[in-house]
Amino acid sequence: MKIVFPRDADLFMLLWKHKILTTRAIWLGAFQQTSLKTCYERLLKLKKSSYIRRIPISDSGYAWSLSINGFQILKDQLPELKVPGYGSESPLHDLFIPLAAYSQHWPNLPAGISFLTEEEIKRFPLEYLPNWYPMDLIRRPDGIWRIQSQSKYYLVAIEIETTLKSALKYETIARQYQDSESIDRVVWFVPTLNFAETILSSFIKRVGSNNFKHDFILLSDLISRGWESNVIVGGDNGNKLTKILNSPLDTASIPGRRLSHLDISLSPHKSVTSKFLSEAAPPDLATYFKSTPFSTFLKFRQSLHTKHRSHI
Length: 312
Prior knowledge:
Helices cover 34% and strands 15% of the residues. It is of the alpha/beta class. The chain has a domain at 90-306.
């Protein structure tokens, strides 16, 4: 099959950087000049020729990733990689990262904000990373925002946590972030308030509460509200993510676009559930999520209304 550049090249690069994307997210990221139906048909042809793979997300949901053939073509467009590779080891986890990183702005970001993906950090040689990359950071986060504020910039690491690690592991992570003078904040997206409190206690035990860098946001609020989510635990407790990013949502953002990453219907142009995430209307979250693997991250929202405790 003939590879059509630059469109296919844009698709391969998008999939490589973000590991795994839904059909709707790919359409917005690389096929906006065509219809959603045309995008889907092109993805099927690329799959048939073994350039991309279809990744099951649930019994009826799918997303897309590069295959070895697609990666081999893309390698010609990349510098020699420090760690060759591609694809997702944790699809459900990785689908949340662009949602957190871009919110309603996908596939672009507001002026003054850029984002470096975990895949770029892991695989590019240091000389190909931007000059603002934090050389003093040992930990590799799920991504890093660079935020321009007047004549200065600051760095915010992003962490998506869907399973708890050991207390000792979190103590090590706390020390790694605290030792990095380059990283100004770390935003954690977690399923429950208990997750946040458990991680927080390990962090405080290791580095104390002075100059505390970490903020925690519920994944359910990220899904429902994007960058309008509130910090539930941390130094910016009660503030919205938009304040941390110094970027209020404006007319450049499109509310329905935030959930393009979670539209796991393979062919959204003819999907019954996909219509609940249309850009043209407020998303019908209650109807959509109860039949998807993301429902787990929605049911814990009530926990905030039943706990009234003071946090850092």
